Amino acid sequence: SLNDDTGFPFIYVFKQATNTAGVNGLTAIILIPVILSNILFNASTARQTFSFARDRGLPFSSWIAKVDEKRKLPVNSIILSCIISALLSLINIGSETAFNAIVSLNVAALMFSYSISMSCLIWRKLFHPHTLPPARWGLGCYGLAVNIIGWLYVLFALFWSFWPEATPVTTETFNWSVVIFVAVFLMYENTISLKTTVATLKLECDSVASEVLECEE
Q: Which of 34-48, 166-180, 200-214 has the lowest mean pLDDT?
């Protein structure tokens, strides 16, 4: 099944179990939810992009964060998300290795963000439970155990998301997502440091300018 011409093992299983019409029907059952979920994913991504741009965290933030007055929707961020998704899908035409690296990077980024939020929650539950706001529904004494199990699974998935799919490892089979992940992380850190430095310099310049004006008066 792994060497099937379609590239999808589940289609191979369908072909062994039924005829062509059955394969098409069973595959459609899988594809339709995937298509519908992609619409939801795009909506979520567009809203996150809008929020990030609204807080001036992206280039051309004023354009991206613009809300259409008639539709009451962040149309520009939706369009931008669709364009970027389409461009990323075209990478598979030129290099399957690069496309797989981006897909793996997506998994790694999600697992990394989950691990941070879950670890903070576990820390609060263990050492500062009184600081947590009351919840409308909870698992009671089992909640912490579920959080820890989920956190361990996230770390497990994060670890293996950086590994290559097969051996021997070559430039084609190497999982380049780890390189991209570290590079993006370092770029983010440098950007934050640069913004902090610029803000500090601006405050110092404003302070010096105020002192000069006071002296002139």
A: 200-214
AA identity, residue 15? K
**Burial status of residue 52 (CB atoms within 10 A of its CB: 0-12, 13-18, 19 or more):** middle
Name the β-bridge partners of 73.
68
- The upper half-sphere exposure of residue 109, i.e. CA atoms within 13 Å in the direction of its Cβ, equals 14
Percentages (nearest 5) of helix, strand, coil residues in the chain: 75, 0, 25
Question: Can you read off the two tokens belonging to residue 205?
Answer: 């310049």
Phi first, then psi, for residue 73 (nearest 5°) are: -130, 150
Confidence of residue 190 (pLDDT cuts 50, 70, 90): low
Bond before 134 cis per omega within 30 degrees: no
- 66 DSSP assignment: -
Q: What is the pLDDT of residues 166-184, one digit of tens each?
A: 777 777 777 777 888 888 7
Q: What is the dihedral of CA 104, 110, 112, 115, to 10 degrees?
A: -140
- The tokens of 2 are what? 């792994």
